[in-house]
Write a structure and sequence with these properties.
single chain, 131 residues, mainly alpha, two-stranded antiparallel sheet, 5 helices, 2 strands, 3% strand, Ycf2
Length: 131
């Protein structure tokens, strides 16, 4: 019986710690990180931040304010659908002006190829990279 009680107390303590970690992450409040108890104050701060971060209206490309959730959802979906289904290449050719500044031995991220590689083989790979 005593072992079961100890086990339950340990489990309850772990649950409390998990809840406090959740609220610490959610509220991003330094007091929780320093170990203060989980109180209504922190919950209220979290709710206040959540309400402050809500998007209540959006302005579309024609300058019209959208306030209905369905209108905002439709607008955002259309915006990203158009962005990611563009028929044009996504490469900005003005970036090619930056190749002279790219050091021959400097690696670009994340592919790790060095500047001299791109300069030497641009006639072979340039069109494929720009598509």
């Amino acid at each position: 019986m005593i072992n079961e009680e100890k086990s339950l107390n340990l489990e309850l303590s772990m649950i409390w710690n998990t809840e406090e970690e959740f609220w610490a992450q959610t509220s991003r409040n330094c007091w929780l990180q320093e170990g203060d108890q989980n109180t209504g104050f922190f919950h209220a701060n979290t709710i206040k931040r959540r309400n402050r971060n809500k998007i209540l209206k959006l302005k579309n490309s024609e300058g019209i304010w959208l306030e209905e959730k369905l209108d905002m959802d439709t607008h955002v979906n259309a915006l990203y659908r158009d962005l990611f289904t563009s028929k044009e290449g996504l490469f900005d050719y003005s970036l090619l002006d930056g190749f002279p500044q790219l050091g021959a031995n400097k690696a670009t991220k994340p592919d790790g190829f060095q500047g001299f590689f791109f300069r030497k083989f641009w006639n072979l790979i340039g069109d494929q990279l720009c598509e």
